[in-house]
Amino acid sequence: MPRRENISMSVIRRLPRYYRFLTHLKDKGVTRISSTELSVKLGLTASQIRQDLNCFGGFGQQGYGYIVDQLCDEIGNILGLSSRYKTILIGAGNLGRAIASHMQFEDEGFDLIGIFDSSPSKTGTRINGHIVIDTTELENFCEKEKPVMAILCIPREGVQSIIERLYGMGVRNFWNFSHYDISMRYEDTVVENVHLNDSLMTLCYRISNPNDK
Amino acid sequence: MPRRENISMSVIRRLPRYYRFLTHLKDKGVTRISSTELSVKLGLTASQIRQDLNCFGGFGQQGYGYIVDQLCDEIGNILGLSSRYKTILIGAGNLGRAIASHMQFEDEGFDLIGIFDSSPSKTGTRINGHIVIDTTELENFCEKEKPVMAILCIPREGVQSIIERLYGMGVRNFWNFSHYDISMRYEDTVVENVHLNDSLMTLCYRISNPNDK
DNA sequence: TCTATTGTGTTAAATATATAACTATTATCT
DNA sequence: AGATAATAGTTATATATTTAACACAATAGA
């Protein structure tokens, strides 16, 4: 039975890692694993793993460990991976196209139902089965299809206005690849930023300053 | 004068954000800014910003604030953005191609000097001015060019062996897009993971559990 | 030039997170 | 079936991180 009282972001961000590794174990045919074994493989402490899992309930058996298959399913459920969230992608540039083609959205609860771009050189072209639609069609499309999630792969300048249009059409969740930091005045939205440049700068810092952890 | 004694990862990960925003301000012609103003724009507390900056020295003036231009440069220096790190990219699939075309590596201290792939359908093709080289040529290439950084855009299975080959050739820094969690036995390496699927799963969790923060 | 105000740098307190210690349950072995 | 070992769940401690408070320097205005 889940407890779920104010789970911290630190815990949530480790769940996909557990899920990924457990899936891998399952594929390898491993049926049971202890928190200690997990901790070694993942480079964490056993304490942390046990505590993370216990935020959601006791999935293990004392003296035995965790059943890989079962734990994997449990975490999948916690993450909500069996949900179906209608998703659109805005921006069919290099990155947008790669995201659309590369990601297995379905496995993570999302269904890509439309790709948009405002450049005439892109609209009408085909990406992974989807025909790129002109961004002027956004409102019409949303009214009909009611997407709940938008992936933003557009330049900084365009973001604020697109967000407002999408919010107006009921979209509340954003996976943001733009350089723009979406600071939502709205309370009911979820934003996950992926700032590749920030990641690269962090890497640059760490290379340049090998002393720091 | 920098102090730099064991800067925490939390601080380091905020630096690119500051840098990005200050660059933006600079472009807009803003010349000075206070920690309070910054905190409002970035959605952080002024205390945090002041403390972050003071890890590296006092860049502001009491009663006045920070000079945008100067602070921006300082943070750029701290991040080491003027470094030149020879970089190669492994894996010319959807994601690899997008990363190679989309990123402004030069602005972040990296020079992309080669792209590799093991599939004959990719080798010889051109990506953003680079001809894709067969991965069998990796050792020859490294011996000559001495890259220090590798971007990994290959499937999980290939990662461990590629890392070992690269490590053998002196590459110590990795920007990893694969689903594989690089757990380095080696002490002198820097790994920055970008797990897009994890990010998406986190998003899925947050949509499915709107109560949590 | 003096004074009030602003706003940094710094120290202290509060909160969050991670680790360690402990308890109790289950499995395994004899 | 009973004893022992293994290991989850839980509580307590330690550490890290964030926020708040404050003292002091510089600015700007009268």
From TrEMBL, chains A, B:
* Keywords annotated in UniProt: Cytoplasm, DNA-binding, NAD, Repressor, Transcription, Transcription regulation
InterPro entries recorded for this chain?
A: CoA-bd, NAD(P)-bd_dom_sf, Rex_DNA-bd_C_dom, Tscrpt_rep_Rex, WH-like_DNA-bd_sf, WH_DNA-bd_sf
How does the record describe its quaternary structure?
Homodimer.
- Which family is this sequence assigned to? Belongs to the transcriptional regulatory Rex family.
**TM regions (residue ranges):** none
Which coarse location class applies to the principal site listed for this UniProt protein?
cytoplasm
Role, per record: Modulates transcription in response to changes in cellular NADH/NAD(+) redox state.
Name its species: Caproiciproducens galactitolivorans
| Protein known as | Redox-sensing transcriptional repressor Rex
Localization, per the record, is: Cytoplasm
DNA-binding region boundaries: 17-56
Binding-site residues, NAD(+): 91-96
Q: Does the keyword Repressor apply?
A: yes
Spell out the Pfam families in the cross-references: CoA_binding, Put_DNA-bind_N
Where in the numbering of this chain does the CoA-binding domain appear? 80-181
Task: Report which residue ranges the record marks as coiled coil.
Answer: none
